[in-house]
Fold this protein.
Amino acid sequence: MKWLVSLVGAGLVLLTLRDLFHTLWHPTRHGGLSRLVMTAMWRLAQRFRGRRRVVGLVGPLAMVTVVGMWAFTVVLGWAVIYWPHMPGAFAFSPGSEAAREAALLDSVYLSLVTVATLGLGDIAPGEGWLRVVSPLEALVGFALLTATVSWVLEIYPALTRRRVLAVRLALLRQAAPTPQQIDSTSGALLLDSLATEVVRVRIDFTQYAEAYYFHDGEDHSSLAAMVGYAEALARRGQTAQRPEVRLAGDLLTGALADLAVILDQRFLHTGGTPTEVFAAYAADHGRGGAEP
């Protein structure tokens, strides 16, 4: 029975490590529990009256919640591993009151101290296998801390790339380029560079799916609001006279279609055309529609 309980704890730890791996290190970032938590918080925030202000906090709060969930389940899992073998398989420092406490409380305390790599030493594993398992928890705690810092450092550059593209599209719309300006060598270069930026954002949504749950704020920095104008530019490029401009228009159209596929498969599930997906994307981020 003791080993069955310990196996349940080991299962909790492995489940957490699997979720952490798929969220942070898997090439396609198909997180399980973390994605469910983020999606639930996003949908819940959309029900509030002050929707824009609340939704703006979802991304950072969701990341904190997910990291807290990982830490909680790791601590709980290792505590369940220790619990059936407490106190007999452990050594207590002289004068320690820990041995008089409940076994579960001591197990949680030891797990917290170990995962935080504090190493207080008032409770130490006595049996051989526990002397191997306990340092492994410290390694997992260190990995969790490192992964959390890396996650934060990775997500914000991805958000910056998305907002840079949105601001660039807003400036282009404000400049209102003429058909003659689009149908030129500089127009072809413009459309080609926009296609490259769209591809980068598409990859960011693949590798950092949690970026979707960050609200971009003002309209001019919101890709959800500005992606419709990118579609309009692509159509103008496709109908141009110059072949290089038509090619660049086709590239931008293809990049936008690919972005729409990722958004629809991972977040929106409309099954519609790219224009319909972008409209759903705009609506999901509190915009009336993707602006043309």
